[in-house]
Amino acid sequence: MRPRINVATALNSHYVRYTYVMLTSLFVNQTEADIHVYLLHSDLSESDQECLQSLVRSYGNNVHFLPIGRESFPAELPTTQQWSLETYYRLLLLDILPDEVDRLLYLDVDMIINKPIVELYQTDFEDAYFCACRDMTVNFPMSDARDEIFKDHIAAGFTYVNAGLMLWNVAALRGKYSFKDYMDLAGKLEYKMRAPDQDLLNYLHWNQIKLVDEYRYDLFSKKAYNDGFRYEQVKNETTIIHYAGMKPWEGQYVHYDIEKLWWDYAKQTPFYTELMEEFVRDCVGDPLVYNTMTSLSEEKQKLVAELQKSTELCKHLLQILEKNT
Q1: pLDDT tens per residue across span 300-320
Q2: Computed from CA positions of residues 218, 169, 203, 186, in that sequence, does the dihedral angle turn out positive or negative?
Q3: What CA–CA distance (Å, rounded) separates 260 from 278?
Q4: Which 3-state string (H, E, C) describes the chain?
Q5: What does pTM read for this prediction?
């Protein structure tokens, strides 16, 4: 009998194709598991659901659509282009998951699951309510509202985690916490969260989280690249890659080779050509790289001019010194 793995993610209709890529990477690498996927959404059309259902069933797995009423969320909750209302949907998990779910792995849509996750999924919680990874981009002080929000936590030496990947100990959490607890906390914090739901989860559960290896299970791709990681190393060593921030499918940015891993899995989906055409169109049509290079060239010319002035001043100073010796 194949072990059961419960996975959840939140999405909207715009993110169906990217969810398809993430789920494809999950299924390709979990052939020995019975995966139940819980999709939290508010606006998926019938065709959207049929598309995702067809994918899940083609790998012999199960999908459960969990519709969310947007009216459940206070209007004061902060949202941005990066943090849509859907990011809060995971806070409803304890209220809406069926009784048979005792643990669940939450995954953000902008991830690639590059290797089997059974070992991660079966991690012993010990006395923890969650397993999660240190957020690779957050180091206090942050010079924003989080410094004040987490000042007591910081004094106690807590580690701020990324909510994009969290293994939930549903059996232990159920009955102790609910969506209302998170919304009450948001009000208590006067809705000043910088990373909305992530701040709430960190604040409420800071001492109830077991840390797992972020380099293995929640590798921030751009941070990793800047630290010297490259495509082959990540492909061979990393289980879950997180494309936080700039996305591989968005052409209007400067890109890097670890993004190739996302495209490796996108190529296995029916959306590959469509996604690639959009990407190329955005790259060709967006002036970011050209403007950046032009700006750097202008800055270089200014620096060369300043260097020439400094060189002439040094020569003049040397001449004065030579005359006086």
Answers
A1: 999 898 999 999 889 888 888
A2: positive
A3: 16
A4: CCCEEEEEEECCHHHHHHHHHHHHHHHHCCCCCEEEEEEEECCCCHHHHHHHHHHHHHCCCEEEEEECCHHHCCCCCCCCCCCCHHHHHHHHHHHHCCCCCCCEEEECCCEEECCCCHHHHCCCCCCCCEEEEECCCCCCCCCCHHHHHCHHHHHCCCCCEEEEEEEECHHHHECCECHHHHHHHHHHCCCCCCCHHHHHHHHHHCCCEEECCHHHHCEEHHHHHHCCCCHHHHHHHCCEEECCCCCCCCCCCCCCHHHHHHHHHHCCCCCHHHHHHHHHHHHHHCCHHHHHHHHHHHHHHHHHHHHHHHHHHHHHHHHHHHHCC
A5: 0.89
Confidence band, pLDDT 50/70/90 cuts, at residue 78: very high
Place of tokens 């995702």: 52
At residue 192, the pLDDT reads 92
CB 264, CB 111: distance < 8 Å: no
Classify residue 154 as exposed, middle or buried by CB count within 10 Å of its CB (0-12, 13-18, 19+): middle
- Say how many C-beta atoms besides its own lie within 10 A of residue 142's C-beta: 15
Distance CA 59, CA 75 (A): 39
Asked if residue 181 has pLDDT above 80, the reply is yes
**Could you give the CA distance from residue 236 to residue 114 in angstroms, rounded to a whole number?**
9
Laid out side by side, the sheet with 111-113 consists of 111-113, 240-242, 219-220
The yes-or-no verdict on residue 165 having pLDDT over 90 is yes
Query: To the nearest 10°, the Cα dihedral for 155, 159, 160, 166?
Result: -140
* Contact residues for 294 (Cβ-Cβ < 8 A; gap 6+): none
Nearest to 81 by CA among 15, 161, 154, 27: 15
